[in-house]
Write a structure and sequence with these properties.
By secondary structure, the chain is α+β, with helices and mostly antiparallel strands. It folds into two domains: about 1-185, no CATH class; about 195-345 and about 360-410, no CATH class. The chain has 14 helices and 17 strands. The protein has helices at about 15-40, 65-70, 75-80, 85-105, 160-165, 220-240, 245-270, 275-280, 295, 305-310, 315-325, 365-380, 390-395, 395-415, and strands at about 5-10, 120-125, 130-135, 135-145, 145-155, 165-175, 175-185, 195-200, 205-210, 215, 285-290, 330, 355-360, 360-365, 460, 465-470, 475-480. A five-stranded mixed sheet has the order 10-9-8-11-12, sandwiched between helices. It has a four-stranded antiparallel sheet with strand order 1-7-6-2. β16 (about 465-470) and β17 form a beta hairpin. α1 (about 15-40) packs across α4 (about 85-105) and α2 (about 65-70) crosses α4. The two termini are about 50 Å apart. Mean pLDDT is about 80; it is low at about 415-480.
Length: about 475
């Protein structure tokens, strides 16, 4: 994850004809570079600059993929698009490699190679200048050696005065205007304390290195999506005879839904409510790496029935807002966080989607326990083949005791009358190996299945629920006031 995400200021203005023709050429250049880079497998293998005769270090410098793509097409560019500065090829090569990298990250399906269809241009900061004359913003864009186009416009963006003081980045030209990017290069101080979060559909749970744990409710966000889904279904049913109007209404409702959801997330993360970043403070934040989770869940029969639910999962928007407003953050590996207990590393069982049971410590709220696992992984570097670190390996005994105490307190919130027939899906466990998969589908009553309990004859008091466990018998729940 980048340290600082660039700030983007949209500028709506008319694009001169010279730039419109340049955007068409830029689109053709990028499409050619994408095909060339994929065909020649640029970026999959490392290539190095030759060592200088005076260099005796024996460590050659690697060639960045976009420069390799640029140098391989220099002759082609000068032959067909020599009227443009050579810097255009560098900017297009960088843009093309970003698209190729995203395509490979998503699986590299050869039947759906990335291809630009609309005119666009993404120029580096050495291809344009910004001047402010007489309260007017003048943007000078170089189109050829010793030739340029000047766009004069007003900028009424509320953050212009602050963001424009930072280093200017890329300039994106689209048919309806410009997108100015500014990057804040202020060094982020290294934090001694840390925090991590576990994100799910209706709540996010945060754990801190001082032992505190907090849950933030997201049901109001899910309610917006549920109501707009009802509207979309109604429009699709009533507008079958008029698909053009139905598409217009669907687009209108979708835009309104996305705006409301994003606005509410901003308020919860750093705005009016500020429930999340106020809890995180200036600590280093561990962010769940959920980039491939949705695709992994829906790739087989275990996840197809959850298509509707997964399509409304907003973890991507949540992560972008967090990374933008809290630069001191990093991704942590999420696979197996619900499989091993972060306190003793024993295998967990899951009586329901929202419960995790450890043979040593008892019953936990699943999301709360995963937040503690994320905190452990944020503060450790795991080596392949080695066991996962536990809380006692990182934190002192008082912090470990506090995290365990707060995690066990979550069991009071966990026994909230969850019905076994409740249709639910847990993102990290919709597809797991059989030994770690939840057995929610096998539960026919409100009792815990015998196979998920230990063979030790003991009595556990969790909150206000007394659980009697005896070998060979079903568990009995005696509710006590």
């Amino acid at each position: 994850m980048p340290i600082n995400e660039p700030d983007v200021i949209p500028v709506n203005c008319s694009i001169p004809p010279e730039l419109l023709s340049m955007m068409d050429d830029y689109k053709s250049i990028v499409n050619h570079l994408i095909s060339f880079g994929i065909h020649h497998k640029i970026g999959l293998e490392k290539h190095y600059y030759p060592l200088a005769s005076t260099d005796d270090s024996g460590k050659p410098k690697p060639i960045p993929p976009f420069r390799e793509l640029r140098d391989s097409n220099m002759g082609w560019f000068r032959e067909y698009y020599g009227k443009y500065p050579v810097h255009y090829l560098g900017a297009a090569s960088s843009f093309a490699m970003q698209l190729i990298k995203s395509w490979r990250t998503l699986g590299g399906d050869i039947t759906s190679i990335p291809h630009l269809r609309k005119p666009i241009a993404r120029l580096d900061n050495d291809l344009y200048t910004i001047n402010k004359i007489n309260n007017k913003l003048q943007i000078e864009i170089k189109t050829a050696p010793r030739k340029s186009v000047i766009i004069e416009t007003d900028v009424n963006h509320r953050h212009w005065a602050a963001w424009s003081q930072n280093r200017k980045g890329a300039l994106v030209i689209v048919p309806d205007g410009l997108r100015l990017c500014f990057t804040d290069d202020t060094a982020v101080p290294k934090a001694n304390e840390s925090a991590a979060y576990d994100f799910n559909f209706e709540r996010v749970v945060l754990a801190r290195s001082d032992g505190e744990i907090k849950e933030v409710d997201l049901k109001d966000v899910m309610l917006i999506q549920k109501r707009h889904r009802t509207k979309r279904i109604s429009v699709q049913r009533t507008m079958r005879h008029n698909p053009t109007k139905g598409e217009r209404l669907t687009t209108k409702n979708s835009g309104r839904e996305h705006a409301r959801v994003e606005d509410l997330l901003h308020k919860k993360i750093h705005g009016k409510n500020n429930e999340i970043l106020s809890f995180v403070g200036d600590r280093h934040l561990g962010v769940e790496d959920l980039h491939r989770t949705t695709k992994d869940i829906l790739k087989d029969d275990h996840g197809t029935k959850h298509n509707v639910r997964m399509s409304s999962w907003i973890h991507g928007a949540f992560e972008q807002i967090i990374a933008h407003h809290h630069p001191d953050s990093s991704l942590y590996y999420t696979r197996g966080t619900s499989r091993y207990c972060p306190f003793c590393s024993s295998n967990l069982t899951h009586p329901t989607w929202k419960q995790s049971k450890c043979v040593t410590h008892g019953l936990f709220d699943r999301d709360w326990l995963e937040a503690v696992s994320g905190l452990v992984r944020t503060n450790t570097k795991h080596r392949k083949g080695h066991p996962w670190a536990i809380v006692s390996d990182i934190f002192p005994e008082p912090i470990e005791a506090k995290l365990l105490h707060n995690s066990l307190l979550s069991s009071n919130m966990m026994i909230r009358g969850l019905s076994p027939e409740m249709e639910s899906v847990h993102p990290e466990c919709a597809i797991l190996s059989p030994e770690a998969r939840s057995d929610i589908g096998n539960i026919h009553s409100d009792i815990v299945m015998h196979e998920n309990r230990s063979d030790v004859d003991n009595r556990q008091i969790i909150g206000s629920v007394e659980i009697l466990t005896e070998p060979g018998n079903d568990a009995n729940f005696n509710m006590e006031k």
